[in-house]
Every structure is written in structure tokens, then in C-alpha cells.
Design a protein that fits this description.
By secondary structure, the protein is of the alpha+beta class. It has a domain of about 55 residues. Helices cover about 25% and strands about 10% of the residues. The protein is built from three helices and two strands, in the order ααββα. The protein has a two-stranded antiparallel sheet. The chain starts with 9 loop residues before the first helix and ends in a 21-residue tail after the last helix.
């Protein structure tokens, strides 16, 4: 298991309702439980599955796929939510 610390910024992404993945989307688009066909950007929060594509962790997940450190390797859609710019 990998942990990435972005100065406690991930919480706002994990709890963002706009990122919550519906059961249908999770099955049809994210292809959960389909090994390398499964989207690499699926996150799990206390509210269910969320899309982490447009978040600070995206780059780390991309690196992990490149290094073959995770099985879920697909990039199946544009992503949900938006990246929050901090100034």
C-alpha cells in the first residue's frame, strides 16, 4: 500500500461530492475488478468510490503505472470533479 502526503490536501478531493462515482459508472466506465482494464484513478473514501484523476495524486498514480507498481492501469474517461488551484 502506498501513502502520498500532499499537506492534507487529499481530504478535500476524497470528500468532494462531484467526484463520487456512481455504481453504473464504476462498472461500465471504470471497469472495477477488471485488473489492468480498471481505471487507475479510483479512490475510496468513507462515502464510497471517488475519482482522483483531477487531483494532486494523479501524477503519482501515473508514475506507479509506468513503474508497474499497481495493477489497475487504465485511463478510461475525462475524470470527475475539477483540480482545485491553491494560491
Amino acid at each position: 500500500m502506498y501513502t502520498v502526503d500532499f499537506n492534507n490536501q487529499l481530504g478535500e478531493y476524497l470528500l468532494d461530492e462531484k467526484r463520487k462515482i456512481s455504481k453504473a459508472h464504476l462498472q461500465e466506465v471504470c471497469q472495477i475488478e477488471q485488473k489492468e482494464k480498471t481505471c487507475r484513478y479510483i479512490g475510496l473514501s468513507k462515502g464510497g468510490f471517488v475519482c482522483m484523476k483531477k487531483s494532486p495524486i494523479k501524477t503519482k498514480l501515473d508514475e506507479m503505472v509506468k513503474e508497474k507498481n499497481i495493477i489497475a492501469a487504465a485511463d478510461n474517461c475525462e475524470g470527475l470533479g475539477a483540480i482545485n488551484e491553491k494560491k
